[in-house]
Amino acid sequence: MGRIADTFAALAKQGRKGLIPYIMAGDPSPTLTVDLLHTLVEGGADVIELGVPFSDPMADGPVIQRAAERAIANGVGLHQTLALLAAFRKTNQQTPVVLMGYANPIECMGVDVFVQAAKAAGADGVLVVDYPPEESDQFAQQLRAVDMDPIYLLAPTSTEERIAAVAKVASGYLYYVSLKGVTGAGHLDLHEVSQRIPQIRAKTGLPVGVGFGIRDASTAERLAGMADAVVVGSRLIDAITEAPKSEVRAALLAVMKDIRAGVDQASTNQSQN
Known about the structure:
By secondary structure, the chain is α/β, with parallel strands linked by helices. It has a single domain (about 15-265), classed as Aldolase class I (TIM Barrel). The chain is built from twelve helices and eight strands. Helix 4 packs parallel to helix 6.
């Protein structure tokens, strides 16, 4: 098994839920990214999603769009993101990292070149928002051939057929988008999430992470009670953006610990039931 599978197996054995934080490579500066990745680990990350800056994102809300714009202005693209990941791997060989981004930079680099470069940098998985499962079977096979997981999104609008198609090609975990909208939106329908997760689990044995719209420990606790992990991005980028440069790590760590506490409370609640 790879690092992602090992992590979720350990969480299941311990009766714990996972926390998957997201940050954008190169934001607020390339020199801070590796330190922030280590801060995420210190704050309780089980898996990290590392955003690859792209100029025309389709699933990201204003917070992550601005993070990408800042990163691009700092000269960070796919090549630099891989270099930052490789630097993180010099001192952390345990925490799984998923590269999250869009098809255009990968296509520009060349899929074959990207797969090898991502593996060499230390990536464990890749989530390409605009690679639909029906058209990316070969890409998924290329990733798995080098022990990387193709991660896919599912949405509230995903049909039974779509869920089955994603389950067929995905590995690592499935990322359920908990609302109809972009990252950072705040109109979560917890009842709908509670109905959809069992439908997804009926189609796959993969862990299910839930993201989009998680802003605090309370929301994280409620969603973690339904899923195997929660994914948090915009709230963390807000913390990074709002803090003075000298306090960025402390601000990020405080939010991580708060959300980690909510996720752990969900685990405690389930163990007591």
